[in-house]
Automatic annotation (TrEMBL):
Transmembrane segments: none annotated. Keywords: ATP-binding, Nucleotide-binding. Pfam families: AAA_16. The keyword ATP-binding applies. Residues 16-184 form the Orc1-like AAA ATPase domain. It comes from the Bacteria. This is AAA family ATPase.
Length: 894
């Protein structure tokens, strides 16, 4: 029978791995062919002991032989709660070789965002955005890969990687086409669930081909390995029993053959019956029994090493195991001889800060699980103190503190709260959540209990609004949250309710709390929040007298503090939605600024008020034709979020409203680019949220303006731009935009129905601004043949409301609508008036449309030419095509 042998350079665990090694070789050849080559990703799956680590070692050997830079890391079963543990291991070779100034230069703007997560920069004083940190880590590796090309990243036991690393790995895998990096990942088929499993699925989906599943050794390969280890005289029956005992598991086979050598067992059929007992001593309970045979000191040393998990130095283990230095060194040598611990192999690149590591993760797990429960808990407590004394900080000690039994220890609660703050500052809210949930089990003392709940709500706010609601309600029901902190908690609760699509309850919550307070800044703040949530509610009707109450309250405000400034903004936005005079809207908004700028504490990254209020301010300027001010605010938001590393919903909204600014200005190409980026970011946050609607609605509107109707329809279909609509206001009105879309694709009846639904919803809310809710003009055009009388009434109503609002854009658009319903000289006069107003407007797309319509009505070659130039400058392909067609057939035009 032919025995299958690996190459001479390969380890025993690489028997029958020719196909996998060939795949690695092809990937390396592709990587090294050209500096501009696309990145590659290989995923190898296999049960414990099937040779995943050996395959990565062979990958390192092959890569280094080609001159590649290789970085590697390994997940650990007891280290999954340590955020960024694996990605820090991975980048350690690059970071250690750099001076701090070099690291800052390479990472650029991402240094302050990703640096704290990597442990090379101090964290800031506020909660970091997890998505921003993830993007920063992707950028970090991208920049470092240019320096260290060709670069190979090896990640072993990815099923045990921390969730933050897996988030980064999933995002990195999806961007590999932009980078010349080879990533090789190994993992077990199971041992992971929830969010981590989804991240690993994303990684697998990004690979060039399906994940390769490693198989056990065949009987022939096991026989070959047995004879290569013990000698050619090993007989067939003995070799067959080795395979039967180990089930062809390479790791168990190697360990068993080592035991055979140690015991000087003859490899013959007569001694084959002893293999099963030898195999039991190499794993599970047998390994524990073998460990105990080494003595109590060696056992305590191994237990302490398993508790530490990483950075296993003899000095630290000695402190944890209460051993003298000489005894500790003796135990370390015993455990190395017994193949339980080993010195880290420099070839793996994972030497880290420890003297020792376990020979295999299976051994580490068996040793850890063998520690008696009560002793294991006590050792974690001691380990926490040792880690803290070594100066590693509360976050490093937290994984040990979490394992300690609750014992009414307020000092431990304080340590866990400090660890949670550190985790939040580096962008690891899930790790902060675990710390604070453990702190609640201690439990905290009554005076600190509501504060722990409040901090826990901060940790869950971005990922679990429903949990946040429960934590804050409980905290607010306890004594202890007073003054400004209580107001902050109520505001945070209302935000969580809003994000959980419970806007009406958010309104009731702040209203009830405001009623409890005496007149003053705190009450005024909650009143402002109450009006803010009501103002963005897109429900069937508003509360009676709301606008008048808001106007009365705002009339007393001079803008002396942020509560008064907020009320002025809210009053301005309310007046905008109702179509009141635009000059008054602008005057209210101007009074909310300090020397023309946002007041301190009212910036885009300040958390006291949230993004909604500032978007109301910016949008009030945008729709009153003060586009310079609006765009300044939109771009300020974008810069603020990018600088702070906020890559989630805030950045998605910033891009959406930068796009809206471009759309209003008539820069349709730029608008489309911003809105597509917004939609990409919004997809990562989650569908159905108001920010997702903002991006989709504005993108559809922009594509329609560009004349790309089929593409607008495809975007609407793909992203669910259809009823039911969100409970919060989206600008421009999504019903009006969808109605226009339906008309554009020829579904006239459906379009009219949608616009009539927009009419009903606007009337219920009192939203009569024809610029923000433009259903009437489109409905009038749609009805001009079927029901001309109603169309005429609608046009008159649009003009009346536009004149009340008073902007050039509103009046010009109303005149365009009126001209579209007329013929002859009356149509020409109205079209000419529309041009006059829209020429003075900052909205160049509308000006281009009016100019072309006038050129057609007046048969003016000059105006068609000018309209064509304007349409081309806007990127309005549909308008430009219409102008060209009229010019080509316009014989006799003036």
């Amino acid at each position: 029978m032919t025995e299958v042998r690996p190459t001479a350079a390969a380890s025993a665990s690489l028997w029958e791995r020719d196909e996998e090694v060939a795949a690695v070789t092809r990937a390396l050849d592709s990587l090294c062919a050209d500096r501009s080559s696309s990145g590659g990703l290989l995923v190898f799956r296999g049960e414990a002991g099937l040779g995943k680590t050996a395959l990565l070692a062979e990958t390192r050997r092959l890569a280094e032989a080609r001159g590649c830079t290789v970085w590697s890391a390994r997940g650990g079963e007891t280290l999954r709660s340590v955020p960024f543990n694996v990605v820090r291991q991975l980048l350690q070779p690059a970071l250690v070789s750099m001076l701090p100034e070099e690291a800052r230069e390479y990472l650029g703007d991402w240094y302050d965002i990703a640096g704290p997560a990597l442990g090379i920069a101090d964290p800031g004083d506020r909660q970091a955005d997890p998505q921003g940190v993830c993007d920063g880590l992707v950028a970090a590796v991208r920049r470092l890969s240019r320096r260290d090309w060709p670069l190979v990243l090896l990640i072993d036991d990815a099923h045990w990687a921390d969730q933050e690393t897996l988030h980064w790995l999933a995002a990195f895998a999806e961007r590999l086409a932009e980078m010349s990096v080879l990533v090789v990942v190994t993992r077990r088929p199971d041992d992971v669930s929830g969010t981590s499993a989804r991240h690993l699925d994303t990684v697998a989906a990004a690979a060039a081909g399906p994940a390769t599943t490693l198989s056990a050794l065949t009987p022939d390969a096991t026989a070959g390995l047995t004879r290569a280890t013990l000698g050619a005289h090993a007989d067939a029956a003995f070799c067959r029993e080795v395979w039967a005992v180990t089930a062809g598991n390479p790791y168990e086979t190697v360990e068993l053959l080592a035991k055979v050598q140690d015991s000087e067992l003859e490899p013959v059929e007569a001694r084959a019956g002893e293999l099963r007992e030898l195999n039991r001593s190499a794993r599970g309970g047998g390994l524990v029994a073998r460990l105990e045979e080494l003595g109590i000191d060696a056992t305590r040393f191994a237990w302490a090493a398993a508790i530490l998990g990483t950075g296993i130095s003899i000095d630290l283990v000695a402190k944890l195991a209460t051993l003298k230095p000489g005894e500790a060194r003796r135990c370390a040598e015993l455990l190395r001889t017994a193949r339980i611990l080993t010195a880290p192999d420099p070839a793996t690149g994972r030497s880290g800060d420890g003297d020792l590591e376990f020979v295999h993760p299976l051994i580490a797990t068996a040793v850890y699980n063998s520690i008696p429960d009560a002793l294991r808990t006590a050792m974690h407590g001691i380990a926490a103190r040792i880690v803290t004394d070594e100066g590693h900080g509360a976050a490093a000690a937290a994984r040990h503190l979490i394992e300690v039994h609750p014992d009414d220890d307020e000092e431990l609660v304080g340590q866990l709260r400090e660890a949670a703050r550190e985790h939040l500052a580096v962008g690891a809210p899930d790790a902060a959540r675990r710390c604070l949930e453990r702190a609640l089990k201690e439990p905290p003392r009554p005076d600190s209990h509501p504060h722990v709940l409040y901090e826990l709500a901060e940790a869950t706010f971005l990922t679990a609004p429903a949990r946040t609601i429960g934590h804050l309600r409980t905290a607010l029901g306890m004594p202890g949250l007073d003054g400004d902190q209580r107001v902050d908690a109520v505001f945070r609760l209302s935000q969580a309710l809003l994000h959980n699509d419970q806007l009406e309850e958010a309104v009731r919550t702040v209203e009830a709390e405001a009623a409890r307070l005496q007149p003053g800044p705190a009450r005024m703040r909650l009143q402002a929040v109450h009006f803010m949530w009501e103002g963005i509610h897109a429900g069937e009707a508003t509360s009676p007298g709301r606008s008048q109450r808001l106007a009365d309250l705002a009339s007393t405000c001079t803008g002396r503090d942020n509560s008064e400034r907020a009320l002025l903004i809210l009053r301005g936005f309310d007046a905008l939605m109702h179509g009141e005079n635009a000059e008054e809207v602008v005057e209210l908004c101007d009074r909310a600024l300090v020397n023309g700028r946002l007041a301190p504490g009212l910036g885009w990254t300040d958390t006291e008020w949230g993004i909604e209020l500032l978007l109301m301010l910016a949008n009030a300027y945008a729709f009153t034709d003060r586009l310079d001010r609006a765009e300044s605010l939109y771009n300020e938001a974008l810069r603020a979020y990018e600088t702070a590393g906020w890559s989630g919903g805030h950045l998605a909204l910033a891009h959406a409203y930068v796009g809206l600014g471009h759309r209003r200005r008539g820069r349709l190409t730029d608008a489309e680019a911003s809105l597509r980026e917004s939609l990409r970011l919004a997809e990562r946050v989650g569908r159905g949220l108001p920010l997702y609607w903002s991006a989709t609605c504005n993108l559809v509107d922009t594509l329609l303006a560009r004349g790309r109707v089929e593409e607008a329809w495809e975007v609407a279909e793909r992203h669910g731009f259809a009823p039911p609509y969100p409970s919060t206001i989206v600008l421009p009105d999504p019903r009006s935009v969808r109605g226009r879309l339906l008309l554009a694709v020829g579904r006239t009846k459906d379009g009219i129905n949608e616009l009539e639904a927009a009419e009903k919803a606007a009337a219920a809310r009192g939203h009569h601004n024809p610029v923000l809710v433009p259903w009437a003009a489109d409905l009038a055009r749609a009805l001009r043949t079927e029901d001309p009388d109603r169309a005429a009434r609608l046009a008159v109503d649009v003009r009346r409301r536009a004149e009340r609002f008073g902007t050039d854009t509103a009046i010009g658009e109303a005149l365009r609508c009126a001209a579209a319903l007329e013929t002859g000289q009356r149509a020409v006069r109205l079209a000419a008036q529309a041009v006059t107003y829209l020429e003075a407007s900052p909205c160049q797309y509308e000006h281009a449309a009016a100019r072309i319509e006038y050129g057609i009505a007046a048969r003016s070659m000059t105006d068609l030419d000018r309209g064509l130039d304007l349409a081309l400058s806007c990127g309005a392909d549909g308008l430009a095509a219409r102008a060209r067609a009229e010019l080509e057939t316009g014989a006799g035009l003036r």
